[in-house]
Every structure is written in structure tokens, then in C-alpha cells.
Amino acid sequence: MKTDSFALRHLGPRETDLPKMLETIGVETLDQLIYETIPDDIRLKQPLQLEHIMTEYEYANHIRQLGRTNKVFKSYIGLGYHPTIVPPAIQRNIFENPGWYTAYTPYQAEIAQGRLEAILNFQTMVIELTGMEIANASLLDESTAAAEAMALLFDVRSRDQKKNNVCKFFVSEEILPQTLSVLQTRSTPIGVELVVGNHQEFDFSNEFFGAILQYPGKYGQVYDYADFITKANEKEIKVAVAADILSLVKLTPPGEMGADVVVGTTQRFGIPMGYGGPHAAYFATKEEYKRSMPGRIIGVSQDANGNRALRMALQTREQHIKREKATSNICTAQVLLSVMAGMFAVYHGPKGLQYIADKVHGMASTLAEALNKLGVYQTNTAFFDTLVVKADAKKVKAIAEKHEINFYYIDEETISISLNETILFTDVNEVIAVFAEAVGKEAFEVSEYALENNYPMHLNRKSEFLTHEVFNKYHSETSLMRYIKKLERKDLALNHSMISLGSCTMKLNAAAEMLPLSMPYWNTIHPFAPLDQVEGYTKMLKKLEHQLSVITGFAGTTLQPNSGAQGEYAGLMAIRAYHLSRGDKERNVCLIPASAHGTNPASAAMAGMQIIVTKTMENGNIDVEDVREKANQYKDQLSCLMVTYPSTHGVFESAIKEITQIIHDNGGLVYMDGANMNAQVGLTNPATIGADVCHLNLHKTFAIPHGGGGPGVGPICVNEKLLPFLPSNPFVAVGGEQAITAISGAPYGSALVCLISYGYICMLGAEGVTNATKYAILNANYMKARLEAHYPILYSGEKGRAAHEMILDCRAFKAKGIEVTDIAKRLMDYGFHAPTVSFPVAGTLMVEPTESEDVAELDRFCDAMIAIRQEIEEATAEEPNNVLKNAPHTLAMLTADTWSLPYTREKAAYPLEYIAENKFWPSVRRVDETYGDRNLVCSCAPIEAYM
Ligand SMILES: *Cc1c(COP(=O)(O)O)cnc(C)c1O
566 C-alpha vs ligand 1 centroid, how far in Å? Predict the structure, then answer.
């Protein structure tokens, strides 16, 4: 046995465990189990054609060497991405800390108070810097946040505007080009007409419902938008502003000018550029629009003792993501990055941010003055950090590249130079030298800031920000380190115990996969850097695309979408473009089975499709006859079917090929939701089942950590038919021959974290990824075998097998007064995070162990579930004062002088033996689900507010 094989590290069960596990399941061999699970006609007969397997050590060398073929130039490109200083304390204690990056989305608030507080800090920071009333927990990137703003403003049109079909949206020509491209994608299918123009010439006609402005403009010009916003509001035109977050430290925030929505990226608050992502976008708006707000909002509520506790607000709404009425499909966002950006503000505080902003502006002013002396004239009449100069671009480019410097070359004689937090006088002097050489003059050096402010006095920010204690308390590394640790301790992540989230695949995020993210060769590259500087990135990304194409059986892949839901949208937009390219303008109907994840109908609605829901049969399978009937009924309008495979019920439906054939026979295409790909890799694939396109959640199947709710990567893989329509980017040549406009701002989406999936596949190889699938199925069926005598298992395959996950039916316990939530909360006392609650069936738990958990952990979880089953047995509907209803139990309860509950403290906190040596204490009692929504508070209010 090769003991240096990465597969041994990634897979939980040891070979010696197999006999016992197989016996429990009741099969002779692992292959027998697989044959009984996956229908014969879709099983792959050949191993995947992937390159040779690397050990962890070989991969580390490989990725270092490949990284060195990227050229890390000083970037003055700007356009929404800036070099930044990642505070080492944040890098080490959050970014590189599994306590933070392996956490799940904080649905279980009682064991997520740490990251909930960190996100609340982020929201507070956004609210105060933008001058708005509410903010969400992050969005995918600035460009899609701008599109979400447009969708929100479209959604909140007045009754008259809706009646008169007011559908024009003004886009300032100062908007970032990648944002314009995403706005183009997102506007057409929902019936919004974009009008791009100069905001100074806008006529405020009542044909417009909204407008978006960039602050400062794309090349750095600072405009005062107060007049524009006032005039627009008089005409019921609502205004969104895409704003640079650092500039808001110095400039009047859009909220104070009356903006309705403010969006942007928080990348430059300590998040590496990473060749495009991941970074947290922010979205802030007015309280009155809270019900239309995209994404998640963290809100303040209280626990069973009336103590302050945080939770995701308006959460019940999200579980259905509004389905076909949706204006947004955001599910996974960018939580880890928002935690980091929020912590950047905590660490620097208001004074530190002032200092950084002053420095950036000071350097920009100094450079402007120096260039002026060289006769290189600056044309921005007001700026914060970006200059536009007139010079021979070709000449400057040649010299600059010798100095390893990138500017942005607007045209042959116009160059923009964007400064940032990392710039020192030596850098400014180097830029001066470049221009001096270009214009044939003597270079000189500067060592003092120019004194002048280069934006109008009246735009100087006057309001205070970040006055809350949290932003003024943790400015030494010791105190910050302890604050981060204090929060981390409140959260249960994968470094404590398994998180068996059905559909979400919380597998190992191996250190060997994560380490390269911290390498400067990979993380300090601008997404629009010239292609000859990104050889390593291009190679890695192309290889990953190829690996994913091989795994799905498809012709091509794009990595652009930043989440699974965004992948759905991208896939549906490609399908739409395909039909349109063939003149099939009527093909607009999307069939979706009733059991689909909420993002499916939401994505279809955003792609402008008409959603027809198809029935599910008693046994949970798709009703084939209903699909046939509806496909037939709509055969002239059929665009596609969206289907999850194996199903959201955790079953490989054997009729899948028949279903996809029906769709094709009626002129439609098949979109496969690939969230359950962990049950397919190496054994079957989307192409084989007859799909035309699928998304993959790299943060589920391909080892990118969940980060507490993001980052995610949601590539789509397509067959030949859809290859021409893969999305483009305005700066980098990506996408098909008839490419649709951009899905997200960066050409390869969150390129940095793609390294994780690349490493995963390189180190596991064809054999390892296939074994991962087999072991995922093994683990699920082992748990099924252990649990089925205690909990009814809803749905299984024809031969009685689960796929990689299973649904435990808890609905009958209602008779004893026990809800599925009570079980979820009680699991915390046993040291576990609950499985998926009430999806896809209300009142159930969906368990997915993944291949990374070993038998001992599976057994502990099963023991806990069996013990809870006994507790349910003891419960009665008449007496709700029981161990389940009171769960979770906190340390404060256990150690209080009085104990008046009708069971022992030991039963409350140490019901099984294994718990004692690794006890996890929930930091609050059960959080009130409704209180927080009735009193929505989504920022750190002064402490008096809770008294
Ligand atoms: C997770 C999931 C999605 C959404 O993916 P995100 O990456 O969270 O946007 C869609 N469908 C199913 C079945 C899922 O489990």
C-alpha cells in the first residue's frame, strides 16, 4: 500500500473497516453495493481519462512551479480590483483556519454565533460607510450586486410604473465595463431595457424606473451625484450607486445623497485579488425594501432566556427562495470573505481606515503633481485614487512592463493609473521614472505627500462611522487574535465533528489543497492582467476545465459562475441563446419537478422562462407520464427541463434516460442540477444520462470549503450544442463563438479557489475521485442500515439502496409534540450539526455523510440519532418540558445554582459517553425564530438598545 497516497487522507473508512460496513449493509462487496445503487444503463464502463495521480508533496512542488510562471507585476489597473495588504493576523487566524473556513451556512444559529457576529460587523461597516439603513451578509461580486440592485428597483416599481410597463434603466457610461456586461445579461430576459449614457445629459424622463451610477467613475473621476439623485427621485426614478468602499471613508456616502441602493466590492479591505475572486460584494439599501433584498441578512434576535442572539433574518422566506416569483437566486454567497473584510475594519478601526484612505489619496495626489511636472497631464478634475493621463500608451507600456508595472491603457494615448494601500514612495518614484523615460525627460524623486486634496471640499465626508465599540477595541494583534478565537469557539465547524448536510456535501477540505491560496504567485494577480503574465493561471484553469469536462462527459466548461445558483442561471441563459440562435423564439417553457431546490425555479424566472412544475410520485420519483404529457402539451414552447440527479431525494431514478429522451423528442434541452454530483463522479455522468448542460458546485463535490456560506464556484459543463454560448468578459477573451455577455465580473470567476478543486482532482486522480464516490455511497448506506430500524427512511432506489444521502422521516413524531427542529437542536447537545432540515420534504432530515468521515464518526452520529429516538419515545405532547424542547443546553444552564428541569443535568449535556471528552457548548439557548423578523436589526446597535 502506498501510504503517501492522498486518497488515504481524503477517504474516511480504512480498508479494514470495509468488511464490517458491508456486512451491516448486507452486501458482499463494495462493487455489489454500487451495482445495486446505480442503474445499469447509465454506469460508465471505462475509467475516467485523467492525468496521473500526485502525492501531496508532488502537488505542492507542482503548484509552486506552476505558480512561478505567473508574473506578479505591480498593479495600477484598478477597474474594481486593487492590491491590498491582508493583515497577517487575519490571514492566519481566519483565512487559513479550518475553524472558520470549514463552517457551514449559519442555519443552526445556536452553534454559529461567532460567524454571525463577524457578519453583523460586516453589515454594520457597510451600513455606516455607505450611509444606508440596512445591508446584507454579502453578494457574489460587484457586477452581480449591481444587477441585483437593478432587479430590486424593477421589483419595487410603483403600481403606476408597473401598470404602464415602465422598463427603462439608465446606466451611466462611467460604470465598470464588466458590470455593464453583467447588466446586459441580466436585463433582457426580465424585460428591462438598458439605456447607457452620460449622466450629466440624462433627461429624467418618466420612461425610466431606475438608474445606476459609478462612484468614483470607472477611471476615477469623482462626480457629485446629489443633484442627479434629487432630480431622479422627483420623477420616481430610483437610483443605485456602485461605490468604491475605501473612497467612502473620504467622500460623502451615496446614502447621504439619497441613493436607494449602494453596492460594491469589499475586496480592497484585505482580500487578495486572486485573479478575480473570491471577494465579498456588499449590498445596502433602505429599510422599506427589506423584503426585496437579495441574499441573506443577519439579524439580532433573542434566545429562550431573552438574551441577545443572532440569526439569519427573514430566513423562512429564503428556504423557498421565492421560487418562480423570485427576482434573485442567491444561495451561497461570500461569507468567509465578508468575515475577513469586516475583521479588516475591526482591526484598523475608523482611524486606521482614515489613515489608509489618506495615504492612498495622498500618493495619488503626489503622483499627479509629479507627472504634471513632467508635462504628463492628468485629466480627472476630481479624483480619489485614480489618475487618467495623456501619453503614448505603446511607449509607456513597453517601459512599464520592463519595470514589472501594469497600468490600464484606455486607448493609444490615454492611460489610467489606480493607486492602492500597498503603494510606497519608492513605487511612486518608479512610476515617475517610467513616464520620465517615455517623454524623454529627467526623472526625479519625491518623498513627501502633495498637500492638496483633489476632490471638491463639499464632497468631504463629514459624518462619523464605525463608532461602535467593536471597531475601536481590537487594534493590537493579541486582542484581535483573542477576539477571533472567542468567536471561533462559538461555532461548530468540520474541525469539531461531521456536518452531514444533505445536498451540501461537507467533505474534507484538505490542507494540501488550501495552502497554495496563500502563495503570492497565485493570490496577488489582477483579473485583467495581460495574458502573457498569467501562464500558470491559464494552464491551471484550462486543465481544471478539462478535468471537469472529462468527469461530466461534456465538451466544454466555463468557471465563470460564482455559485451553483449562478451556474444554473448561466446554463439556462446558454440554453436560451441556443434556441434563439435557431430562430426558436417561442421556446421559453422550463419544466421543473416539484421536489427541485428553490434556486431552480428562481434561476428560471431570472432567465425569463415560464415555469411548469411537474409532479412527483408517491415513491418520490419524477412522474414520467406527467413529464411526457407536459412536454407534449408545450412541445412548441419547450425550452428545457431542470432535473437534479441523483434526485434531491437521494435516489438514482432508473427512468432518467427515458425522461431526458422525452425532452429531446419535444425539442427541449436538459439542464442537470449537479449539486449531487458527489454520487456520480467516475461511475456515471450527466452526458450519459442525457443532459446537455450541468452546473457543478465545486464547494460541494470538489472540496472547496463552505466558508460559513461561501465562497462557492459553480462552473457549467456543456455539450457541443451549447459550447458556442459560454459567457464572455469585456477584457479577457473567454467564452464561445457566439458567447453570451458576462455572468460575473471576472473572466474566470473566483479563480483563486479553483486551485482547491484542481488540487483535489490532481491528487486523487481517476481512481481516487471514483473511490470518493463509492465511499460516499458506502457511508450513506452504512448509516441507512444502522438508522432504518429507528427512523423511517423516505425513498430509496429499486434495490433498496440510498445514493450518497438519505431522508429520515420525522413527521410522525409530531404526535409526541416533537418537531424536526427539536431533533436538530438536540443534536447540538450531542456535539453535532444537524443534517439538512425540511428539504426537500418538510418535517424530515436529509443526511449526507460524505466519503471523508470514518466509521467511528459515523457510529457516533448514528448513536446520537438512536439515543434521540429513545428520547422522542419518552416525550409526550402534553408535557413539553423535555430534553428535546429545551435543547440545546448551555453551560450556563448546567452550572447554574438551580436546576429545575425534570431530567438530570447529565442527561441534558452528557447523554452518551463519547461526549465527555469532546464536549461542544452552544453559546446561546434556542434562538427565537420570529422575534428577530418582527424587529429587524441588522447592524451592531449601541448596547443600550438591548437593555
Ligand atoms: C446547493 C444547491 C444549489 C445551489 O447552489 P449554491 O452553490 O448554493 O448556489 C442548487 N441545487 C441544489 C440541489 C443544491 O443542493
Answer: 9
Distance 296 CA to ligand 1 centre (A): 15
Same domain, 359 and 338: no
Question: Is residue 824, in this structure, part of any structural domain at all?
Answer: yes
Number of domains in the chain: 3
State whether 295 and 438 are in the same domain. Answer: no
For residue 346, pLDDT over 60 is answered with yes
Q: CA 781, CA 30: separation in Å to the nearest integer?
A: 11
pLDDT in the model for residue 320: 46
CA distance 439 to 374: 8
What values do phi and psi take at 117, rounded to 5? -65, -40
Region of 765 on the Ramachandran plot (φ > 0 left; ψ -120 to 50 alpha; else beta): left
* 650 lies in some domain: no
Q: H helices within 839-879, ranges in order?
A: 855-874
- Say how many Å lie between the CA of residue 714 and the centre of ligand 1: 9
Spatial separation of the C-alpha atoms in residues 865 and 876, rounded to whole Å: 18
Clarify whether residues 399 and 374 are in a common domain. Answer: yes
Domain C-terminal end among 403, 433, 459? 459
What is the per-residue pLDDT for 640? 98
**CA 600–ligand 1 middle distance (angstroms):** 9
436 in the same domain as 327? no
Q: Supply the DSSP symbol for 806.
A: E
Question: Which of 459, 477, 511 is the last residue in one of the domains?
Answer: 459
Domain holding 402: CATH number?
3.90.1150.10
The answer as to whether 604 is a domain residue is no
Q: Which atom of ligand 1 is nearest to the CA of 599?
A: 10
Q: What are phi and psi of 142, to 5 degrees?
A: -60, -40
Look up cell 447554574; give the residue.
Answer: 896
Beta bridge partners of 212: 171, 240
Q: Which distant-in-sequence residues (6+ apart) come within 8 Å of 275 by Cβ?
A: 522, 525, 526, 527, 529, 534, 537, 746, 748, 751, 752
| Crossing angle (nearest 10°) for helices 624-633 and 656-665 | 10
| Mean local confidence (pLDDT), 283-296 | 94
The whole-angstrom distance between residue 31's C-alpha and the CA centroid of its chain comes to 36
- Which amino acid, 640? C
**8 Å CB contact between 197 and 615:** no
Q: List, for residues 186-231, the tens digit of each pLDDT value.
A: 999 999 999 999 999 999 999 999 999 999 999 999 999 999 999 9
Distance 563 CA to ligand 1 centre (A): 8
Q: What is the CATH number of the domain that holds 280?
A: 3.40.640.10
Distance 17 CA to ligand 1 centre (A): 32
85-144, pLDDT tens digit by residue?
999 999 999 999 999 999 999 999 999 999 999 999 999 999 999 999 999 999 999 999
Does residue 675 line the site of ligand 1, with CB under 6 A? yes
Q: How far is CA 683 from CA 517, 645, 762, 772, in A?
A: 30, 13, 18, 10
Ligand 1 touching residue 331 (CB < 6 A) = yes
> What letter represents residue 217's amino acid?
G
603 touches ligand 1 (CB under 6 Å): no
SS3 830: coil
Enclosing domain of residue 181 = 98-345
**599 close to ligand 1 (CB < 6 Angstrom):** yes
Q: Whose alpha carbon is nearest atom 8 of ligand 1?
A: 332
Residues 361 and 314 in one domain: no
Question: Does residue 563 line the site of ligand 1, with CB under 6 A?
Answer: yes
Q: Are residues 113 and 222 in the same domain?
A: yes
Q: How far apart are CA 400 and CA 371, in angstroms?
A: 15
Q: Is residue 644 part of a domain?
A: no
Mutate to test the pocket of ligand 1, among 148, 334, 503 (most ligand atoms within 8 A of CB): 503
When the pLDDT of each residue in the chain is averaged and rounded to a whole number, the result is 96
* Pairwise pLDDT comparison (320 vs 114), residue with the higher score: 114
**673 pocket-lining for ligand 1 (C-beta < 6 Å):** yes
Domain shared by 420 and 285, yes or no? no
Q: Indicate if 338 and 403 belong to the same structural domain.
A: no
